[in-house]
Amino acid sequence: MSHSILHTVNQSPFTHSALQQCLCYAQESDSILLLENGVYGALLKHSLADKLSGKKCYAIEADLKARGLLGQELTPHIELIDFIYFVELTTQHKLVQSWY
Amino acid sequence: MIFSLLVLSPPSSQASSSAYQFANALLLQKHRLYRVFFYHDAAYNGSSIQCIGQGEFDVAKEWDKLQQQHSFDSVVCIAAGLKRGIINKVEALRYEKAAHNLRNGINLSGLGELADATVKSDRLITFGG
Amino acid sequence: MTSSKKIGITLGHTPYGSDLAQEALDATLAMGLFGQDITLIFWGDGVFQLLKSQNSESVHQKSLEKQINAFELYDIERVFVCAQSLEQRNISTSSLCTDAECLSPTEIQKVLSTQDTLLSF
User: Fold this and answer.
1) CA-CA-CA-CA torsion for A57, A63, A66, A71, nearest 10 degrees?
2) B102 by DSSP, 3-state: which?
3) Minimal CA–CA distance to A55: which of A84, A12, A18, A22?
4) Is B77 labeled as catalytic in the residue annotation?
5) Taking Cα atoms as reference points, which of C87, C6, C100 lies closest to residue C50?
6) Which residues are within 8 A (CB) of A32 and not within 5 positions of it... i.e. 6 or more apart?
7) Sheet harboring C37-42: ordered strands across?
8) Which of A77, B99, C60, C71 has the most CB atoms within 10 Å of its CB?
9) Quick one: which of C1, C89, A86 has its CA closest to B112?
10) pLDDT tens string B49-85
11) A65, A47, A48: which is closest to A57 by C-alpha?
12) CA distance A17 to chain C (A)
């Protein structure tokens, strides 16, 4: 865990390459956090969903809720978290890379 | 742990509010916030004269309250601030500007403060976009 | 200032469209002046910052190329560029203004893991 990276992604994968790039450099031991417009990445069946399902993945629940996404079909293994847990994740990973 | 934040987004971007929420959450967990460095378009967070509509979230005001409670260092990069019209009294005099608008509690300072924060913090988190 | 840390600066945005790339370079040079141990990683659209023959006077901006060529003066010697990002953009290394070392995404992962902190631009 100590050498792993928390990647944060805050752009929609449908308009922006942030998530795609993040997936290109994220290692097995890394984690991905979707926040702000990045939470659109939690929608099932877009082209990156398969790649995403191979990584430990989190999303800010309030951002999904704000965008009306909680009622939508989401990639099942994504864990919904709050900012307290976001802070916790940054302490559990050695590095944080922000994709925006 | 000791945290510092590098904020790059203006108040109009949600990333600016995420940075605030992250700061709030880390302080609730008894971590230490060493410095918030507002750079690039985040310099606009240093303005004291924006007027926020009723019922809208005033992120600058919330930063202010948080800082008063926890007394962490808040810095607007001086180069990024000046070119965006974020200016304090001293610089307004130097550049012969008619007004100044930097919020109380925030310093205008150089990139050395970012280097210092990077060295002195266990975690530096970037908020951009 | 206490002892230096290994600081990775990642650069993923195009130059000139906004001043983010310029301000990222300003931050990089400042870090260098403060004696920090810096590694630069250009990836994604950030690789466009490294193109030679930039003539930005026509868009009223300072040339990034000139500043990138000044890295050595600031003791910034570890400059990496993502080979895959170059390939996706059909750019050959001979078009770059600096002799950045070309790394695969896997090699970049290794470089990242040796850093103490990352600044993401």
Assistant:
1) 0
2) strand
3) A22
4) yes
5) C100
6) A6, A7, A8, A9, A22, A23, A26, A52, A55, A56, A57, A58
7) C101-103, C78-82, C37-42, C6-11, C117-120
8) C71
9) C1
10) 999 999 999 999 999 999 999 999 999 999 999 999 9
11) A48
12) 9
Radius of gyration of chain A measured on its C-alpha atoms:
12
pLDDT, tens only, C17-62: 999 999 999 999 999 998 889 999 999 999 999 999 999 999 999 9
Place of tokens 């301000």: C23
The reply to whether A86 touches chain B by the CB within 8 Å rule is yes
CA distance A84 to chain B (A): 5
ipTM over 0.85 threshold: yes
* Whole-prediction pTM: 0.97
Asked if A24 is an interface residue toward chain C (Cβ–Cβ < 8 A), one would say yes
Return the exposure string of B57-94: e unless at least 16 CB atoms fall within 10 Å of the residue's CB, then b: eebbeebbebbeeeebbbbbbbbbbbebebbbeebbee
